C-alpha cells in the first residue's frame, strides 16, 4: 500500500510554485497600486485595495493549478481564496501598524508581517482552500 505522505521533491516543488505564484501576485499588486497612486493620483488606500483585489484571479489560477494541483471545484475554492486574501491583507495591515507601536524598525515589521502572512496563507490554502 503506497504511503500517503508527500515526497520531499513534491514538497520542494509545491513550495517553489507557492512562492512563485505569491511573488507574481505581489508584483501585480505593487505595479497596479503604484500606477494608480503615482501615475493616476488616486489616494494610497483605494490604490492598495484595488491593487490587492485585481491580482486575486491570476494568483488563484497559479496556486490552484501550479502549486496545489487542486481538483476542488472553482466555485468552492475561489470564494475561500478571495476571503483568505482579504483576511491576510487585514492581518498584515494590523501587524504593520503594531510594529512601530512596539518600537520595531520598519524593515523588521515589514519582514515579520510578510513572513507571518505567507505562512498563514500557505497553511490555509493547503488545508482549507485546496485540500488534498
Layout of secondary structure:
Blueprint: H1 8-39, H2 44-53, H3 56-67, H4 74-101, H5 106-129
Mind explaining what this structure looks like?
With 132 residues, the chain is mainly α. It has one domain (8-129). 80% of the residues lie in helices and 0% in strands. The chain is built from five helices and no strands. 20% of the residues are buried.
Label the overall shape.
Answer: globular
The secondary-structure element order is: HHHHH
- State the separation between the terminal residues, measured CA to CA: 18 Å
Fraction of helical residues? over 70%
Radius of gyration: 16 Å
Low-confidence parts lasting 5 or more residues at pLDDT below 50? Answer: none
Note the total helix count: 5
Structural class: mainly alpha
Largest sheet: none
* Overall structural domain count: 1
Overall pLDDT confidence: 88
Count every beta strand, where a strand is a DSSP E run of 2 or more residues: 0
Which strand-content bin applies to the residues?
under 5%
In short:
The protein has 132 residues and is mainly α.
Keywords:
mainly alpha, 0% strand, 5 helices
Amino acid at each position: 500500500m503506497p504511503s500517503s505522505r508527500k515526497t520531499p521533491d513534491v514538497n520542494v516543488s509545491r513550495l517553489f510554485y507557492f512562492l512563485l505564484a505569491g511573488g507574481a501576485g505581489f508584483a501585480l499588486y505593487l505595479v497596479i497600486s503604484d500606477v494608480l497612486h503615482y501615475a493616476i493620483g488616486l489616494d494610497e488606500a483605494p490604490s492598495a485595495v484595488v491593487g490587492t483585489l485585481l491580482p486575486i484571479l491570476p494568483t488563484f489560477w497559479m496556486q490552484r493549478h501550479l502549486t496545489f494541483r487542486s481538483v476542488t471545484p472553482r466555485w468552492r475554492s475561489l470564494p475561500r481564496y478571495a476571503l483568505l486574501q482579504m483576511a491576510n491583507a487585514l492581518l498584515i495591515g494590523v501587524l504593520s501598524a503594531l510594529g512601530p507601536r512596539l518600537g520595531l524598525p520598519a524593515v523588521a515589521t515589514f519582514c515579520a508581517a510578510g513572513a507571518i502572512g505567507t505562512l498563514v496563507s500557505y497553511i490555509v490554502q493547503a488545508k482549507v482552500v485546496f485540500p488534498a
